[in-house]
Specification:
The chain is mainly β and 407 residues long. 10% of the residues lie in helices and 45% in strands. The protein has 4 helices and 26 strands. Strands 12, 13, 14, 15, 17, 22, 23, 24 and 26 form a 9-stranded antiparallel β-sheet that branches. Strand 7 and strand 8 form a beta hairpin. The longest helix has 14 residues. It is globular and about 65 Å long.
Length: 407
């Protein structure tokens, strides 16, 4: 997306190796205008200079919006944090770390949560050293500045900043606060980054978010201990997802995403990795709807001997519409009539999460829960991505699919 200050978040993410994109390239210098050849004709009578057009105002930094806070809880119960409703969440967790980020719709602000394991009872000097190492990751940025570590109740914080050259030539100062704390053998680094010029307006919700952070040290960090977690970032290979190119559809891994295009109008398609059927599951991912289509996630997908499919699915479209349904042997029943939500970013990539626990189905977009449904018609099956189109060829791009199953 082409936001004025997207560099504020993208630089921070790239320094953490969370994304692979960089700042917008510099505009090339235009070639000089050639000098006209002399002419034998007499010079024309001088005309008065035209009135100068008023200068176009420089693009301004978009405002960070925090309308309300909602609680995000780690699926395994490791931590919880109040986050702004409508912000996009990305999960880059590994077996060694829980690593999540949230960005506001304008991509001017960022929250990072990193939880790792370390020997219990680290002294303050060790906490200072570890936090300093983390913050110094950004010291190559323009005008980087870092305050000395400051011991606070429960941990150590560092305030730091740099100047980001944003899209459109806008320079903005990013001010960040990183706080490190330890609960048992769990070591947390919590970071908030916002435009410095907007800090006073955002200070109260930022304090509320920081005070809300809770860690449960008894929960094992490694997914192998408490949950099964499978991730698909589509950086190289398909990873077990179907690829195809026919008159009806095209499915391919390209440009770091899994893209599906339905070429036959008024059709639908489900694509699933090769995973064993389970009951309680969470599937999440980034979805970008392309054209007049609905795209989303599915759970408990199965297929009988006649090819009829059974599953739960929730979807969004390219505007702000969403809905949910259940299919039993290809017989669809609406569970949630189509509705609109400000949590959905029209025409942009959105973070979707679909969870099934017993007979409760929940659906969230960009961290905002949009549906909590009760239905017992489908007991188990696999995760999938879902796509349907209407009167034109259309499709969707899927990325960062994660499947989490509690043990």
């Amino acid at each position: 997306m082409n936001r004025t200050a997207r560099a504020l978040s993208l630089v921070l993410l790239s320094a953490l190796a969370l994304v692979s994109c960089g700042l917008a390239p510099e505009v090339p210098t235009p070639p000089p205008v050639p000098t006209p050849l002399p002419t034998a004709e007499p010079l024309p009578t001088a005309e008065p200079l035209p009135t100068a057009e008023p200068a176009t105002p420089a693009p301004a930094l978009e405002q960070v919006t925090i309308d309300s806070l909602e609680t995000y809880s780690d699926p395994a119960g490791l931590f919880s944090l109040s986050v702004p409703a409508g912000w996009q969440r990305r999960d880059r967790s590994t077996a060694e770390a829980r690593l999540l980020t949230w960005t506001d719709p304008a991509e001017n602000a960022l929250i990072i949560v990193s939880v790792t394991e370390a020997p219990a009872g680290l002294p303050p000097a060790e906490l200072r050293a570890r936090l300093t190492t983390f913050v110094e990751t950004f010291q190559g940025q323009q005008d980087f500045a870092m305050d000395p570590p400051e011991e606070l109740q429960g941990g150590v914080q560092i305030v730091w900043s740099y100047t980001a050259q944003a899209t459109g030539g806008v320079e903005a100062r990013l001010l960040a606060n990183s706080f490190i704390s330890q609960d048992g053998d769990k070591l947390s680094v919590l970071t908030f980054g916002v435009p410095e010029e907007q800090l006073d307006r955002l200070r109260e919700p930022l304090d509320q978010m920081r005070d809300s952070y809770r860690v449960e040290p008894s929960v094992a960090l490694s997914p192998a201990d408490d949950i099964d977690r499978v991730e698909f970032d589509f950086a190289e290979a398909a990873g077990g997802w179907v690829t195809d190119d026919t008159a009806e559809l095209r499915a391919a891994v390209e440009g770091g995403v899994y893209r599906i295009t339905l070429r036959t109008t008024n059709s639908y398609y489900l694509s699933a990795p090769s995973l064993a059927p389970v009951d309680d599951t969470t599937v999440s991912g980034i979805v970008l709807v392309e054209g007049n289509a609905r795209a989303g996630l599915a759970l408990r997908l199965s297929q009988d001997a006649d090819g009829r499919k059974t599953y739960y699915a929730c979807w969004i479209d390219a505007t702000d519409l969403f809905g949910c349904f259940v299919s039993v042997a290809d017989q669809w029943t609406t569970l949630l009539e189509p509705a609109t939500s400000p949590a959905i970013r029209p025409g942009a990539a959105n973070s979707l999460t679909l969870t099934a626990v017993d007979d409760t189905i929940t659906f969230a977009v960009n961290g905002t829960e949009l549906a909590r449904l009760t239905d017992a018609r489908v007991a188990e099956g696999g995760p999938a991505v879902y796509l349907e189109n209407f009167d034109t060829e259309a499709g969707a791009a899927f990325d960062d699919i994660a499947v989490v199953t509690p043990r």
